[in-house]
Amino acid sequence: MLMNKVTGREWTPTDFPGIERSLFRNNPEGGRSSVVRLRQGARFPRHTHQGTEEVVVLVGRITIGGVELEAGDYLFTSPGEEHDVVALSDAQIFVSSQKATPLIPE
């Protein structure tokens, strides 16, 4: 059993300003499950999904591929789909990716 309790959760900065990650686990196919914390205005660049991805908005409001999502909303992404993520407010999202998600050069 793997457990990650909210008390004592560790946050690691990403390469993108205003975005931090609390990693739950990496999976054998290159994906991972984590909670991502975004400051208002932060942007995770456009990327391509090689596997499926599930996102649940825990706190705040974001856009994924231009579609606005708020706390409680769920998004499923199929392999081959592309999108970016923009924080409309301070936000936290749960993200579980089946495989790695390479960035698309801008």
UniProtKB/TrEMBL annotation:
According to the entry, every stretch annotated as the ChrR-like cupin domain falls at 7-95
The protein's matches in InterPro entries, at most eight in alphabetical order, are given as: ChrR-like_cupin_dom (IPR025979), RmlC-like_jellyroll (IPR014710), RmlC_Cupin_sf (IPR011051)
Q: Which Pfam families match?
A: Cupin_7
Q: Output the SUPFAM superfamilies linked to this UniProt entry.
A: RmlC-like cupins (SSF51182)
Q: What is this protein called?
A: ChrR-like cupin domain-containing protein
Annotated source species: Oryzomicrobium terrae
